[in-house]
Amino acid sequence: VQLVESGGGLVQPGGSLRLSCAASGSIFSINRMGWYRQATGKERELVAFITSGGSTNYADAVKGRCTVSRDNAKDTVYLQMNSLKPEDTAVYYCHYRDYGPGYATDYWGEGTLVTVSS
């Protein structure tokens, strides 16, 4: 599975940004797609994910400000980020997980940089 992200960039505090990630290759019908981020000097952390069934999960730090969604026909996941803060600055990585009998496999995109600064 290959993941290609787009939509990162520089935005002012309080602004909005939408990230997109298109998956290609052997996409399983039962999967989970989402976003992680890694700020300089910190560990990679979950931002949000959405399952193929539509269930979502968000990190406390972004609840109420971010919305994760997906287009199953396009195998694409989106992250709409609003009211951005300087602490949201990080490299954002697209993540895909599929499931087999007793195992799960993770795939990662190369990352897209989001910088929140005035």
Describe the protein's topology.
Layout (H helix, E strand, L loop, with lengths): L1 E5 L2 E3 L5 E8 L6 E8 L6 E7 L4 E3 L7 E6 L4 E6 L8 E11 L2 E6 L3 E5 L2
Parallel strand pairs: 2-11
Antiparallel strand pairs: 1-3, 3-8, 4-5, 4-9, 5-6, 7-8, 9-10, 9-11
Number of strands: 11
Overall 3D form: elongated
Q: Any low-confidence stretches, pLDDT <50, length ≥5?
A: none
The Cα radius of gyration reads 14 Å
Helix content: under 10%
Helical segment tally?
0
Order of helices and strands: EEEEEEEEEEE
Beta-strand content bin: over 45%
Structural overview:
With 118 residues, the protein is an all-beta fold. It is built from no helices and 11 strands. Strands 2, 4, 5, 6, 9, 10 and 11 form a 7-stranded mixed sheet that branches. A hairpin with a 2-residue loop joins strand 9 and strand 10. The model has no long low-confidence stretch (mean pLDDT 95).
Concise synopsis of the structure shown:
The chain is mainly β and 118 residues long.
Tag the structure with descriptive keywords.
118 residues, mainly beta, seven-stranded mixed β-sheet, 11 strands
